[in-house]
């Protein structure tokens, strides 16, 4: 399972989130991870956009999570699909996630 964070379509961090694991059907797994990445190189225009957003009280990041899902179709037959989840997350000037982004359901699709 991999996680990536983007600011205006530019990746600003990524990390491996979790090793393969078994999850019972119809359950939820909470992930707790720290995203990191190389120092972001941005143009002065992009930095100005970031600072303007921060000055307005929020910066919107896009969080992408990608994982391979393996599931049983019959007693002996398994299938794999890649799951993609994408969510916009609003962060306040102090670095905390804003209430509008908490407990939010994000779109998921499979390839």
TrEMBL record:
Alphabetical keyword list: Membrane, Transmembrane, Transmembrane helix
Subcellular location: Membrane
GO biological process, one term: defense response to other organism
Coiled-coil region: none
InterPro entries in alphabetical order: LEA_2, NDR1-like
Membrane topology of the entry: Single-pass membrane protein
PANTHER family: LATE EMBRYOGENESIS ABUNDANT (LEA) HYDROXYPROLINE-RICH GLYCOPROTEIN FAMILY, OS05G0367900 PROTEIN
Protein name as annotated: Late embryogenesis abundant protein LEA-2 subgroup domain-containing protein
Source organism of this protein record: Acer negundo
Upper lineage: Eukaryota, Viridiplantae, Streptophyta, Embryophyta, Tracheophyta
């Amino acid at each position: 399972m991999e996680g990536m964070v983007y600011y205006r379509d530019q990746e600003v961090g990524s990390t491996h989130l979790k090793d393969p694991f078994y999850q019972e059907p119809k359950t939820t797994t909470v992930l707790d991870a720290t995203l990191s990445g190389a120092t972001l190189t941005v143009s002065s225009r992009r930095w100005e956009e970031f600072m303007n957003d921060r000055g307005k009280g929020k910066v919107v990041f896009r969080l992408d999570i990608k994982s391979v899902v393996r599931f049983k179709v019959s007693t002996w037959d398994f299938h794999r699909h890649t799951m993609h989840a994408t969510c916009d997350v609003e962060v306040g000037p102090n670095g905390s996630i804003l209430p509008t982004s908490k407990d939010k359901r994000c779109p998921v699709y499979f390839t």
